Every structure is written in structure tokens, then in C-alpha cells.
Queue: 2 jobs
Job 1
Amino acid sequence: MKHRQKNVSAPRSGFAQLHPVVQCFYLLAAACVPMFFMHPFFLLSAMLAGLFYSFLLGGKKAAKKAGGFFLLACILILVNPFLNHAGNTILVYVNDLPVTRESIFYGVIFALLLLEVLFWFSCWNRIITSRKLAYLLGTRFPSLSLLFTMVLRLIPRYGKTADEILKGRRGLRNFEGKLSFGKRIRESSSVFSALTTWALENGVDTADSMRARGYGLPGRVCTVSYSGKKEDVVLAAIWGLSMLGMVISLWAGGLKVSYFPITRLPAWDGWMLWAQLFFSVLCWMPLIFDVWEELRWMRLRWKI
Amino acid sequence: MDAFTLENLTFTYPNCPEPAVRDLTLTVKKGEFLLLCGASGSGKTTLLRQLKPALSPSGSRQGKIQYQGVSLEDLDFSRQSREIGFVLQDPENQIVTDTVEHELAFGLENLGVPPDTARLRIAEIVEFFGLQECYNQETASLSGGKKQILNLASVMVMQPSVLLLDEPTSMLDPVAASDFFQAVYRINREMGTTVILTEHRLEEVFPLADRVAVMENGELSCLGDPREVGEKLFATGSPMVRALPAPARLFAGEGSPLPLTVREGRACLEKKIEGMNVPDFPARTPREQSPILKIKHLWFRYEKNAPDVLSDLSLSVPRGQIFCLMGGNGSGKTTLLSLIRGLRRPYSGSVQWCDEHTGKKAKNPPSVALLPQNPRILFLHSTVWEDLLEAAPEKGKGEKKKSVLEAVEKAGAQVFLQRHPYDLSGGECQKAGLALLLLQKPDVMLLDEPTKGLDAHSKDELGDLLRKLSGEGKTILMVSHDVEFCGEFGDMCGLLFNGTLVSCGVPEVFFSENRYYTTAVSRMTRGILTGYVTEKDVKAVWRKWKEDP
């Protein structure tokens, strides 16, 4: 469709309505902490939380996407042992190359990492709208933030115009049958060249429109502002405390993970349990908060 | 104090022998709605840009421009950005950011308006322009008309005291253009903002303006009240006459005050034909031609779960005629053309090319070429000539040249062959596109909105050209919003609504049956005369009456 209606606002309640800085902290922590430690439990917890949260935000579409991600992960798990031959425990030889238990296990871990990052990234996309990103970058890097929103504007425009050019050329000329490879290359380069000309010529107008509206005056501000609410303070405090607790537990208990030459995971002692509990709070919090808010509103509306 | 005072302004572009604006003196009063019109290349855009220093092109300028008593050179950038708003031609290009919300805030962010004030101003503007529904949307998802309204709103949010508009509706369809003019009119009346508007489509905006200034070759040829200016243009025989509203064209030079709207026109007409016995207009009998194209029960949608764009559309296009298909935005016109050209496939129904003699499915389908709405995107070289040469399907260099020259002559594109495609005006660009089309030697030409952005003169030229081509046996199927053009040049007209053909016939019958979707002349003569659709039809009666009362 030419004009597809698309709403760019984030969901109306719960985590998505918190202050962007708080959201940013939670999303980054959930996605990045397991990346540093590569511990199976951290990865699994973050992956599951990310999976459920992206379902909650995206519904059916997210489920479809998740299917694709899982497929990718399966391929990774299957392929890894045949590419990576490190590890001491050899299970079988394929084409004179060893397949090791460690590399199979590492494949699983790596797939978990990939999934975890992908899921949290899709949550990030839903929660941190371009306006929020503009706000996060805005005050300190105004040009960067503007550049970002302009790029977001240009990407769909370029795509649309490229399609128009392609269709325009097809509609005009009589291409008989299929094009040969060489001709296809030449055709694509023509489309690209026409797109470049178009972009340069039209860019002048955009620059005029910006100048006309005072772009370049000193003291540019970002008009988006988010004020902190009670919930923001509470969630920020929970984040800080969990982070602190996790770091202390890890520091006291020690977290050394290695996968080669043999898999070595830290013992399941008290400190480890504490660290994992704190991390779970971090990455399940958005989901918990959303459900909590949903229940609260349901209760409030019940009284109407 | 006046909004603008121009004294003996002369402006010359670098490397140009002739000045683009010559010795121009003009005063624009505060709160005035001034319409600046003139043929393309008359210097109206150049003049308008002189009034906004940030957008003034480089060149040499003599004379004085004062803004509210201050010389324009002394006006600082901040005040200029705040107080002089400017809306450009292309709705797409002006949008800077990705969301409607941010676009509205853009100007205020530049000015450093504190967030609380900014939010209030944006809220006000959204209410004023009725943008509530698209406030949370991406700018890319808006229609062209809404985009231009957004551009207007994001200028008005800065609360300018003067609004300059450079052909703001030339890329819009008539309905959207009308909405846009109404919005500008409201700003002028309700906010007291001074408006200076350049435009070549005068039908709608002529009655709205307080004063009209006409430019010719960089000079101010005429200035005054719309009615006065209209009369003067007729008296001097200016080519701008073609662009005037239909009622004015019909009753100019008759002594009574010039009618500008259909309502006034009807009153004049009733007075004029009192005692006349005007016969019904003899409707053409449709030329009996075997159809070249038969479309049967066509269904199409873009995606599995998307709504149908075309639903059960059946249509038969006669050979060698100009078939005009009209319809509003989203009625599926452009989609239909791409289906006929075979760029997309319907999910049900058929598009069949017919044999000339048997009327059955043709063994060798005719060659078909489609010209897209914006032919400019087809050009990628630095001159039109190079592009045409590359597009010629012939093998040898000499043959290519010969075929290009032939096509160029037919399309009337000789004058601008050595120019850059992006420097062409709308009319020239359309001609260049037609030349590109003719190179393929098509039997059937599909045209998508060929009159978009053209001034009245270019439209006439295009119409004559299409007539000539159809006389040579080419079948032309065009889709358009342009009711006046289709009424004048079409052999057959059809109305597409909601993905299907609701009405079809020769223009005289087609337009007399329609009440709203019809030409201005038809709206004016309804109930008074029967079957009169174009100015020519009515004028013929005038003449006949004079000769033989």
C-alpha cells in the first residue's frame, strides 16, 4: 500500500511510559550483562525474559519474528561443532576433523547469546521511539540526534523512490523475457544512478526548508521532556540495588567461566545464587511492571 | 506600517544577461492576501525568494526591500526565521524528520523555545489544522495533501507574521489543493497573517485573494482587485487568461462586474440567456471503434490481508482514442495502470488485448508503454539528449539519433534537449517524458496524471499533442484528477470509485450526469443549459447567437 497507517507511539501503559533513562538502563542491562559473563543461567534468564517481553509488546508479529530467530539459532547450533574444533572431549571424527563436546556446548551458549540480544533489541525498538532517542542524545548531541531522525525519514523515502524508478523503467521499456546477468547489473546501476541524482536534487529543497525554519541558530533545544514520576524513582532504585547486589555477590563469590579446552562453570554456591537472583530481578522487571500496571488499571476500571 | 515595501527591485542571476526581476515596486499591506501569478519563468518564485533572505538565491540585487520598516539586510536570522514563514512547492522534500510530532517541533527547537511553551504551541496548531489523527504517525505514512498541511502547520507553529507560499499546491490533487487553500484562507482571516502566494492554478484561489499581482518577464504588468485584474488581462489579451476561473473567462468584457465563482457565474448566465433560445448541446455519438483492451472482473490487493484496491473492475478501451479515467486519491487509478502494463498481477480477472479485426484475443499484443507520474525519476544523465539517446531501442548510433530526433519533434521537446532534466519546468518535463515514451514506438500509451503541476498553457500544449497522437492511431489511456482537462480533450471519460468503474461515457454525457465531479462550466450551466461541458461549447453558442439571433 502506498500510505500505510503506522502508529509510532510506544504502548500506552506500564514500562513503555517510564522515563527514557530508566528504560534505557533496564534494556541495556538485560541485553549486555550476560554478554560480559557468558554464564548459561544469565543467558537463559535474559533470553526467556526477552522472549516473553517481546511477545507482550509485539503480539503475533513478534511470535513470527521469534520463530525466525529460533531457526537461526538452530542452524548455529548445528553448524558450530563442524567449524570449531577446539575442546578436549572428542566425541567423533567427521572428515578427519574432531567434533568435541565443548564446541557443541559452546554452540548452544552462543545461540543463546544471539537470541537474547535479538529479543532485547526488538524490545528496544518498540520501547525507545525515535523521539525518546532524540531526547536521550538530544541535549548533549543535538546534531547527532537530528541526523538520526533525518536518516529515519530518508530510509523509507529512498526505498519508495528506488521502487518507483525501477517500476518506471520497467513500464516504459519493452524488456523481452528475462534479462541477462550483465544487463541486470547495468539496470541496477542505472536505477542507483537515477536515485542518486534524485536524492541530491531533492536534498536542496530539504536544506531550504531547514534554513527557512531557522536551522543553524545558536541555542537549539530539544522540546521533548520527560519528567520523573514516582514509579520512575522506584524502578530506578530497584535497578540500582539489584545491580549493586549482583556485582557484590559476583565479586565475593567469583565468576570464572571458560568453555575451552574444557567447560568450566563456577560452583553453585550461595553467592552465585544471590547474583543470579539479582540479575533475574533486573531482566524480568519490565515484564513484572507491565503486568502489575495492567492489573492496577483493570482494578481501577472495574470500579467505573 | 506595511509588511513589505519593495522599491525599484531588480535582480539578476549570475551568468544571466537578462534580469529575472526588473524594476519592481510594490507595497504589501499588513494582513493582506496577495496572489502573485504569472506564467512559468515570469520571475514570481525569484521575487518571492527575495522576501526571505535565508532562501534568496545568489545574484546581484539593486533596489530596496523593507520588512516592517526595517531594511531586509538588517533583519537578523532569528527574527527572520520567526516572522517570515515560507512554504515550498514539494510536500515531500520539505519534511525533515520522521514523525509528525517532531516535524512540528523542529522550528521551535531551532528557535530555542522552552519545552513547556513549545508543547502548548504544538497542541494549539494541531487543533487548528485538525492534525490530531496523524499526530502520532510517521511522516512517511501521510498522503500528499496531509503532508503539505503538515508543512504549513510546522511553519505556522513558529507564529510568523508573514506567510510566503511558493506554488504550494502544484503537486496536490484538486481536493487536497482546495483543502490547502481553505487552510491558508483561514490563517489569513482568523489570525491576520499576511499571505503572499504564487500560483498558476487560479480557479480556486483567485476569488480568495484581496489583491492580485501579475508578472510578465520579470515585470509587474498588472496589480489590483481580482475583478479589475481579470478584466485588464482580457483587455490586453494576456496568455494568463487561460488560467482564470471559468466563469470569468466566459463573461469577460461584457460590462458587468466579472464573476469569479460558479455562483456569480450562474447569475450572469441566467441574465444573459434571457430571451435566447439555446438548443441542447449536440452530444457526440461515440465513435464506433473495436476495443483494443478489455478488462474483465479485475480484483487486486497489495497484500494478503490488505483491503482490495480494485474490486470487480470491468472496462473496455476503444482503439485510437483518448480515454480519461478519473477518480480521487486511493481510488486505484495508478494501480490499474500498472496492472494493464503487466507490472503487477491481479489475483482474479483478466486484462486482454484484442485483435483489430476479429475482436478476439490478439495473437500479437500491441506494444504498451507507461509514463509514471513523475517522469523526472527516469532521467539519470546530465542532459535530456543523453538520456533519450540511451533509451532508444535501436541498435546503431545513427539510427538511434534519427529515432530520437523523430520522437523529440513529435513531443515538441527540441528547445531543452541540452538542459539538465532537473532544471526543466513541469510542462517541459512532461514533454521530455513523452519523448522518452514515443521512442519505444508504443501502440498504447498509458499516462499517469500527465497534467500534474502544469500551468494552463502547458496543459493546452499537452492536450493538442495527445490529440495529434491519437489522430495517428495511438490509443491513449490516461488517469487524472484534472476534470477540466479530461472534459476538454478526452474522447471517453470514466470515473473510478472505490476500485471499480462507476460511470463511463463521452464527456458531454458523462459530465452532464455528474453533479459534483464535473467541470466548472458544467456546474455553472446545470439546469440552465443542457450538455455544455467546456468553455468552447458555450462560446460557440454565443457566437452563433451573435451571427443569427
Job 2
Amino acid sequence: MFASSGNVSKEEAARTAAIAGAIDVLVTLSALIAAHSSVLLADFLKTSLEFVAVLLSWLAIRRIVGGTQHQFDYGLGKLENLSSLFVGSIMLLGMLVIVINAIANMLNPSHIAGLGVWISLIAQIVFGGINSLLSWRSFRTARAENSPLLKSQGQLFFTRAFGNVFILLALGLSLLLSGFSWSVYIDPAASLVIAASILISAIGVLSSSFYDLLDRTLEEADQIVILRELAQRFHDYEALHGIRSRRAGGQVFIEVFLEFDPDETMGEIQMVADALCRSIEAQIPSSRVAVALAKEALH
Amino acid sequence: MLTVNVAKSGEVTEVLLTGELDGMTSSQLEQQLNSLIGSGERRFLIRFAALALITSAGLRVFLGFAKKTHKLNGKMVLCEMSPNVRGVFDMAGFSNIMTISATAAEGKALLEPDSTPTTP
């Protein structure tokens, strides 16, 4: 078995993100060392935590790709969901660190200074552009493959791009308005706004992954789709013995237990089953439908 | 919670549903309907007047039951649906395969032995 092209593209996207994250960490660290700024400290912590999250996602995807080569052949969706849960937890942790740091600097305010501020200004412009691009790519791939992992990455990069813009504004305004005594509060205040955006993203990632991990049932709208298809084919089967459905990661698995007329050939039954499966799969994204012959039909 | 009251009126078995028909209560209704079929009943008037809610799990019961009555040359008429419940049946396409009447009297008339078959 070979790795699917979808998984390979996921791995490439995650690897690119991990490399970009590592460079971002190095730049923010150098800016932090060369400057006295509370926002830069928060930026470094946030970037480091995000890098760990991206690295973890990349490792998870590497394992998934390896799985199709007989090393990890079960629960791919689960692994993605677990990674997303961890990413969400890391984001929450980063948010807490920024909030605590901002409060501490509001209690003991000081003006920003040092070469690191200028390094950071340039870095925010460059990484703001890179993060925006990575966010767009992740969301596009996540939509195509219905991957919660790439969706969480897209949200992560969007949050980072948002953070870049805010830090750029915070540093710029702090420098421009340094003549005013209240300007010392710009940095920590901007950090709190970034923390709020991280919290919103983290809640989204955690709730989506958590429900998928619990194998939540199908939404009513999807259940109605299945019933509508069965109603449309009311005369094509003898009896309905049950419908089972569950989610596993981004996939939806549906089994329909039908009884057919014993006089029908397997070819005729197969045609009905195939048409039903195709129709449901076309209406429910990422679904796999199977028609099972109910016990009575086998007699 | 769902309460199922069964009453016999001539050859027609009236089933009055009260409460909510969802994933928690659908198996209760399914068992009772199967029991009625098992005891030889063939003409059913299902009354929805006191049914506040129906979900896909409830719809599934009626799809399966419609198949059973059809197989046994029986008849099933659904009646007294609220606009909301009727909307759910329409959305699922059940209105095309099941006979739905506005009132219980109309439903009974459709279940008379000389009336046209109501279940497809």
C-alpha cells in the first residue's frame, strides 16, 4: 500500500508549517533578548507554544502516512482528533501565560526600548504575510479533505497573523506615542486582545475535536437525508431492519440494514444498494455508506 | 417521554401518541406497533394530536412500520398532525409514501374495508 496523495499533501503542509514556526521562534527569541518589551515576551511564549503544537501535528500526520504502510492502520481520525485536542490545550496555555504577563506589566509598567523592537517590527510584517498565506492554504486543504487537524492549523495560523498585526500596531504606537505616560499600557492591553482571540480559537478547536472524538451521532439533517432516500426507494426493498451511523474523526460511517424480495437476484439487489449508497454519499460529506442484507433476506 | 394509548374501533386500531417521539422513546413505540401486528391487527390509525415532537428516530419507526403493513396487505393512516410534525414528514419525503389525513374521522373513513389501499 502506498500513502495517499491527500495524506502526503497534508504532511507537506504540516512540515512547511513546522519549519516556518521554528524560524518564527528564533526571530522572536532574538527580538526578546535585544529588547525590553512585555509584548515581545508574550509573543515569544505564544510563538513557542504554537510551534510545539504545529510540530505535534506534523508528527501525527507522519504517523498517519506511515500507517498506510502497515505501521498504524487503525483510528486515523482519532489520532487527528487527539492532536487537535492537544493543540487546543496548548493554545489555552499560551493564552493564560499572555494574560498573566499582561497583568504583571500593567502593575509595573515601563516604556519599550532596544534594538529588538525594530527587529520585531520587521519580523511582524514578514511573518504576518507568511501566516496569512499558511492559514489560507490550511483552510483550503481542510475543506477539500474535511480534516479537523488542518482546520485547527488554519485557525492557528489565522490567530498568529492576527497577532502579528496587533503586535505591529502595539509596538508602533508605543514608539510613536512614547511622549505620553499612558502609552506604557498599550503593549499589555494589545496582548490581552491577542489572548482573547486565542481563547476563541482554542474553544472552537477543542469543541469540534472533542465531539468527534466521542463518536457523536449524525446531525438530524443528515439522518433525514438517509430517511428521504429510503422513502424515495420505498418499493425497491422489502423491509427496513435498521440504520447505524457514527462518526470517526472527519469520516461518517452509515450502515443500512435492508431486506429484499427473495426472488430478486443479487445483481438486482446490488444495483439498488449501489444507487442508495451513491445518493446518500453525495449528500453527506465524507460519508461511507454500506447496505447490509438483513437476516431474513439471507434465508 | 411518550405515552402510547391503543383503542380498538371496529376493524381499526387507533394509536394515540402523547409526548415526544425521539431516540429515547422510539423503541417503545416500535415494540408496541410490532406487538399489534403480531396479534393480527392490520388497519391502523395513528393519531398525532398530542405529539409535541418527532425526530428522525421516530420517523424511522413509521418507515419500518409502513413497510410491514404493506407486506401484510394492511393499511396505515396518520392523522391530526401539527404543522411542525407535518413539516418533518414532508421534509423526509414520507408524505409521498404514507397516507396522511387532517382529522381522525377522515382517517377512519380511509381505513374502511371498501376504501382504496392507503399504504403504497
